[in-house]
């Protein structure tokens, strides 16, 4: 009797997994119908499980078994050390193994090095460079940070900006990953929110932000420490009353799969919560505000405004910026 119940539960989970994948196909649409894959940036502190989450997303839609696309794990026993160093984008062409999903506009997932939990102008500007598609694959984030630290934010802007960036290269969604086993990186999240939801008149492009809480299986969910951390995470991401944008999940890893069964098969009970969350993240009800805004036009306008000493110079600067914006808009069409 017990075995029959267990088999029935496994069948329900498998069916739910299939339904969630079918729903995801509907949500993202087909590329031949003009649907564009979203660019989803994964952000978190070191050791939060970012790369493991990326691999888990890929496994959740796989037909056969888990694969390691993003380098995951820590070096030895050192808490918080990580393998990811350079920016790496994983397109659907790289991680989709099922022929049933070919042709669908599944998102590109961007992995970056774990960031320090500090609130600084440099971190905020690096995030903005990422959001506007100014930093390409294989760029070392730590090198960018060190350059900004040595030369200042303004110099960093002018060194790494690109004359033209297509909208398809910009970030459309942000997922902040935090581990239930570590304090919530409040300072880092504050930088993320400032860059993703600017309040100044300079940058106005706003990006939807989501949260993932990993490793909750390693803590006491009924304990005060976990409850406080979860609430802190929700409040830091401004998700109070919007917890449907928060996922609490476990990743494919040795902790839940010590015999590495994942290298031979998928784990549906891990997949389903992740698939449900990705259906929310990719939903069309979330949109980027001012999607065509160019990082370059903003910093050129700022420089012109600071250096213009007369009315005629200001008028000239405005005309130049307007012309530049028109050119960027025409190129993006």
From TrEMBL:
Keyword Transmembrane helix (UniProt): yes
What this protein is called in its record is G domain-containing protein
Per its UniProt record, what Gene3D superfamilies does this chain match?
Answer: P-loop containing nucleotide triphosphate hydrolases
**Keyword list, A-Z:** Membrane, Transmembrane, Transmembrane helix
Q: Which residues cross the membrane?
A: 314-332
Highest taxon of the lineage: Eukaryota
Record lineage: Eukaryota, Metazoa, Spiralia, Lophotrochozoa, Mollusca
